[in-house]
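User: C-alpha cells for this one?
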Amino acid sequence: MTAQRVLIVDDEPDIRELLDITLSRMGLDTFSAATLGEARELVTEVSPDLCLTDMKLPDGNGISLVEFIQQDHAHIPVAMITAHGSVETAITALKAGAFDFISKPIELETLRTLVSSALQLGGDTATLSQAVGQDLIGNAPSIQLLRKQITKLARSQAPVHIRGESGSGKEVVARLIHNNGPRSRGNFIAVNCGAIPPDLMESELFGHVKGSFTGAAADKPGLFQAAAGGTLFLDEVADLPLAMQVKLLRAIQEKAVRPVGGSAEIPTDVRLLSATHKDLAAEVDAGRFRNDLYYRINVIDVKVPSLRERSEDLPLLAAAITERIAREHGEGGVKLDDTALRALANYTFPGNVRELENILERSLALLDGDTITADDLQFSQMTPRSPQTRTRKSDREGTQTWSVEEAYGDLEGYLEEIEKQILSKALEESRWNKTATARLLGISFRSLRYRLKKLGLDE
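Assistant:
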C-alpha cells in the first residue's frame, strides 16, 4: 500500500525537521518547501494528500497557498501553522478554506490528531456530494447552493453558524456536515441552549465534580467531553446568558474546559457548530450577544432557506416525507393526489419543513386508504381557537370544560395524558379488541395503531 504524502511548508529548518520526523513515524511520506514558490511547484508535482503550511513565508503568506490549492487542487486539505494566540490569522485561514489550524509551539499529540483527521477525508468529493444530495431533498437554487456548502464544509474543521427560521432544517444541515466529515465516527451532541436553566448551563456544558454543589453526588462529564472527537451542536445559541457566553468563548479559545468545582482545565477536541433562528448580528448590536464570541462561532455563515423560499420543492419533499413516515409505520404505497399538492402549495408553512412533517404524519395516521387528499390535510381546521377554554361533549357526563391554564408549561404532555385516558378506557370497554376500539372511537384501525404506538400503549 502506497504511503500517504504530506507537504510541509516552513522557512525554519528546525520546524521542517520536527514535522518530518513526527510524520515519518506515522508512516507518511513527507516533502518540504521553504517558500511559497517551491510549495506551489510541489503541490502540482507531488499532489500531496495533505499540506501543512506556516503563515509567514519569505515570498508571501500561507493564506495565498490556501487560496491557490482551493482553486486548482480543492481535494487537498490544508492546515495552517499560526503563532500562539493569533486568532485573527487562524480565522482568516479557515475562511479561505483551510481544513484546520495548529498553533506554535506545536504540540505533537495535537498535530497527530489533526493529520489523522485530515487524511481520513480522501479526495473523492463526488461521493461526498452524492451522499449529501440523498439527505438534502430539493432542486431549488437555494438548496443546490446549500448542498455545495455542506459538501465543502464537511471537509473542514471551521466553526459554522447556521441560520434560518424555526423548523427549516438547521439541525439536519449540522448533522450532514458531521456525518460526511472526518469526525463522523465520533458523537454528534446537540443541545438547545434555550432549554437549559441558566443555573445548570455551566454544569451541562463543562461538567462538574462531586460535591461542587448540592446534589452533585458524583463527577459528571459535560457535553464538551461527551462530544470529544466529534461535533458539538449549539442550537439557539443566541439564548445563552451573557455570563455563559464569556465561559464558552474561553473554552473555544483555549480548547479546554474547567468543570464546575474543578481545579484544572480538561483539553477538548470538538468541532463546534451553532444555529439560531434569530439575527445574531442584530443581537450583537443590541448588546445581547458578545461580539468576540460572534466572531469565533461565525467563521463560516450558512443560510438555510425557508420552505416558502423553495416552494418548487414542495411536491418532491412532501412525497419523500410521506414515503418515509409510511415506511416507519409499516405502511406502503401511500401517495398525495393533486388536490393535496395544490393545498400544500397554497399554504404558507410558518413552521417550515417541521410543520410539513407534522401535517403529513397526522394525515397518514387518520387516513382510510392509500391516497392523501386536500381534505385529509385538514387545513380548514388550522384556525385560531378561543384563548380561554375548550369544551368537549360526553354522552355520559354532559359537557366538561378544560381550562387552558391547566396546560401551561407542558401543553403536549397535558394533551397526551388526556388522549391516554380516553384510549385506555376505550380499550377496556372493548376488552382490548383493537378493531372494536377503533370503531368505538370513530377512527380508522391505522389511526388507532399509530396513536397507541405514539403513547406507548401498544404492548
